[in-house]
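agent> Task received from the user: take the single chain below, predict its 3D structure, and emit structure tokens. No templates, no multimer pairing.
agent> Plan: (1) validate residues, (2) run structure prediction, (3) serialize to tokens, (4) report one or two observations.
agent> Step 1 OK, no nonstandard residues flagged.
tool_call: predict_structure(input=
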Amino acid sequence: MGVLSDIFHKIFPASHPAVVKSQKPAAPQTSPSAAPTKPTTTATASTTTSTSSVMPPPTDIPEVDVEEMLNAKAKTAGQPLNWRSSIVDLLKLLDLDSSLQSRKELAAELGYTGDTNDSATMNIWLHRQVMNKLAANGGKVPADLKD
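)
tool_result: status=success, residues=147
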């Protein structure tokens, strides 16, 4: 599981599609003698690939009010955390690792191409990308926090 998946697990309910799809698929339960033949496996793989690249994102994703949920958590955090502008505070609020190494992992996961040693610039980018990902996966995110 990656850092973004950890964020999804903290914000969305366990049954939410964003959480379900971020979980690793279980290994198939087959005996060596019952293993599928190579052509079947190839056909299945190509069908899965072409289907997933053609299918539009689901339109009936249950919406989660991210702002309401995070504000409620912030009230009981025991310290002031500005989750609206700080990726570090957002991660702390969700009880996730907010270290530079963790943020660099998140940056790699999200395709950051800038200098990860420029943590201020990276942090601003990360916060915006996380808000965009939450919104794209059924999170109701304030318009000023996303692209």
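agent> Step 4: summary for the user.
Confidence is low (pLDDT under 50) at residues 26-53.
agent> Done.
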